[in-house]
Amino acid sequence: MDHQRAKELFSQYLDGELPPEQQSELEAHLDQCETCQAELNALEKTLSSLAGLAPVPPPKDFDRKVQQRIRRRSRGRFFKPDNLLNRIPFEWISFVIIMLMLVMYFMLIQSQVKVKPDPQRDGGVERTKVIEKRGKVDSPLDSRPQ
User: Fold this and answer.
1) What is the rounded CA–CA span in Å between residue 104 and residue 93?
2) What is the pLDDT of residue 85?
3) CB of 115 within 8 A of CB of 128?
4) Which is deepest, 31, 36, 85, 100, by most CB within 10 Å?
5) What b/e sequence results for 42-57 when a residue is b if at least 16 CB atoms lie within 10 Å of its CB, and e otherwise?
């Protein structure tokens, strides 16, 4: 194991999250490498020092100030005041339109009961006739002059 790979594993090693084979490989490297050993000890010392610090609560208007700064720097692209266009759920509108199109398509399909060949027209050339629920309607192929 090289130094860079060992350094990448230090945090997981200290948290006890390394798989056993990686842990034993890292420990073998640490036994031979004084540089990595010193860096791991320094990381442990830093983490233990940070653990003793008390959390500091943010100011009450911290969120608002951050949003204002982002709005100002982004020239209003983020955290705009709400208006009607921001409230329209375009995804839902698209979904409803697609569903309406599917319903119309299936209604059109349902109006056609079956399709059967018509070999009797134009000298035995097979054509298709569409039969609707209310009556017989010829396909566009049958509308040619005879």
Assistant:
1) 17
2) 59
3) yes
4) 36
5) eeeeeeeeeeeeeeee
Helices 34-51, 20-32: axis angle to 10 degrees equals 110
| pLDDT (0 to 100) of residue 132 | 47
Between strands 136-138 and 112-118, the pairing is unpaired
> Partners of 115 in the beta sheet?
130
Look at residue 69 in the predicted model and tell me its pLDDT: 86
Reported pTM: 0.41
Are residues 130 and 139 in contact, defined by beta-carbon separation less than 8 angstroms? yes
Whole-Å CA distances, 63 to 6, 60, 67, 97, 126: 39, 8, 6, 38, 74
The CA distance from 54 to 39, in Å, is: 25
Mean pLDDT by 10 residues, the chain (146 residues): 87 90 91 91 90 88 88 71 63 91 91 60 51 50 52
CA-wise closest residue to 3 among 49, 37, 36, 45? 36
- What whole-number distance in Å separates Cα of residue 131 and Cα of residue 118? 12
pLDDT of residue 100: 96
